[in-house]
Amino acid sequence: MRRRGFFALAAGVLVAAGCGANGAGSLVKRLFVLEPTADGHGWDRIAGRLATVVVQAGLARTAMAVERGGALGSAPRDAFGAFHGPFAREGRLLVTAMPMVAAAEIANTVAVVNAATPIARLVGDWSVLVVPSDSRLLTFEDFAARLRRNPAGLAVGGRPEGGSEHVLYGMIGKCLGVDARLLEYAGYLTPEDAVEGLQVGQVAALLGSARALRSEIAAGRLRPLAVSSGDRIDGIDAPTLREVDVRLEYSDWCGLLGPKDMSPEDRDAAIALCDRLDAAPGWRSLCAAHGWSRVYLSGDDFRQWLSTETARARGVLHELGLLKSSDTTCWGSCVRRP
User: Fold this and answer.
1) Which CATH number applies to 6-123+252-316?
2) 3 has pLDDT over 60
3) Same fold, 6-123+252-316 and 125-250
4) CA-based Rg of the chain, rounded to a whole angstrom?
5) CA angle at residue 309 from 305 to 311, to 5 degrees?
C-alpha cells in the first residue's frame, strides 16, 4: 500500500516522499518553508504548494509549510530565531514579496535585503488598472488627464496601504508628473473587497492582479485601461504602460530568503535547490496553472536586484508620505514628452 504523502500538523502541512520516491539525490533532508500570515502579504498558500513540488521533484525528503505570525516588516529578522543549519540537514526558507519590503521601510526596521540572506526571486504577478464597465474613463489617456487635473479627486483602490498596488499607483502618478502626496488611495484587505469597493463607487479605478481580475474583465464587468507588464497580456485587451508613454514596468513578486548569517556552503545549497526548483516540470506546470510569471533570479543577482527595488520603493513611499525620509531622488519625468 502506498503511504500517504500529506500529514496535517498544527504548525502547517508536511509533505513527505512516498514509499516509491527516491530521496538519494535530495539537497536537504527536511525543508521548512516559512510563510507570513500578516494581512496584505498577497502570496497566501504558496509555501504549501512550493513544499509539495520540492518533494515531488526529489529536492527534499520532507518539506513543511509553516505559518509565521507577527509584523510583516520584521518577519525577516524574527522568523528564523537562533537557527543556524546546516541547510542540508534542516533547511529553512522564508517567503518574501514586495509588501514585506515596503512594510520594513514603513516600520523603519532593517531593510529586508540586509535582515536576511536573499536566495531567489521565483515568480511575479503583473497588475492591471481597471474601471467599471460603465465608467466615463474609456482609456488610460482619460484616466491620466483626470489625474493631472485633480489628483485628490480620483480615488484608486488596491490592496492595503503601502503594498504593491499603492507603490505602483505612486509610481504612475510620479511618471505622470503628479505630486504623489495628493493621490487618493483606498486599501482593501482582499481583492474581492477591492472589486466590491469599485462596483459600489467607493473608488473610481482599481489596481489589482491581472491574474485575479481576468475573469471579471472577461465577463465584461470591468474595463482594463493598462497593464504593468512589458508586453501585452493574453486575454486582456489593454495596452502596456509603456505603450501609453509611461516608462514603467512593475510586477508584484515572490521569492525566498534564508537566515541572515548563512554559511557560504548553506547559501550555495539553498540557491542550488531553487535553481533546480525553477527547472522542475512540476513547478513550471504549477506556475502556468496559477498564472504566475517565472521571473527567476538567484544569489548575488537577486541580492543586487532586491537592493535596487528596495531603493525604488523607498523613494515612492517617501513621496506618498509614508516615510519621513528617503535615500532616493527622482531625476526628471518618466513620461516621454512630445
Assistant:
1) 3.40.190.150
2) no
3) yes
4) 21
5) 120
